[in-house]
């Protein structure tokens, strides 16, 4: 999956979402609240094999196809977040992230899918259960919830992707050292793009800013949205290796 102001501190407590220390950034609270889930993500077989280069090519192709479908939906959610942003700076960031998802990131996927490095498509790709559920959740949240809740919902795709990507990229570099012609290891190294980490930092700051002026109830909703989206991150990666076919 993809993504592409100083950070404010949200004090007080988030009703039903755990205590937030007055010196703690709200996004640090979100990260702490999802620690167990993220540990499960770090231990996923799909990600281990993606990093060490042992993921079967047909599985990698399916993952790329699903990720391309996801990018289209994610861009729509980001555009909705941009439309409800409270100021031009925030709006410009989210709009730029939406544009990047549909142009730069999608182009990289399409180039690899169209290359000889991967087996040809067996069928026309359709959304998996996890992919459809994830993009539907993000778009619905961005369309019906407050800006603060919507921003929290789209943050995991930035932040968890970057956190996982830093480790995967280091592993992929080792794969390339052994096999410079590995079909997808070089693509995996792009997970650790410095520009993307800068975007994560900005996205976090914008969520912190939103939390700083939110009510306790809204911060609780932000925590719930971040957690739900993080669960979908897990499901998206897990079903790439362990698919759950649609009923006939």
Q: Could you characterize the architecture of this molecule?
A:
With 248 residues, the protein is mostly helical. The protein has a single domain, classed as Heme Oxygenase, Chain A. Helix content is 71%, strand content 0%. α6 packs antiparallel against α10 (216-241). The protein is globular, with a radius of gyration of 18 Å. Residues 2-17 have low confidence and may be disordered. Residues 45-241 form the Thiaminase-2/PQQC domain. Residues 1-21 are annotated as: Disordered. This is Thiaminase (Transcriptional activator TenA). Pathway: Cofactor biosynthesis; thiamine diphosphate biosynthesis.
CATH fold-level topology: Heme Oxygenase, Chain A
Tally of distinct domains:
1
| CATH class category label | Mainly Alpha
Give the low-pLDDT segments. Answer: 2-17
Q: What value does the average pLDDT take?
A: 90
Region (Disordered): 1-21
Biased composition (Low complexity): 1-18
InterPro entries: Haem_Oase-like_multi-hlx, Thiaminase-2/PQQC, Thiamine_Salvage_TenA
Pathway: Cofactor biosynthesis; thiamine diphosphate biosynthesis
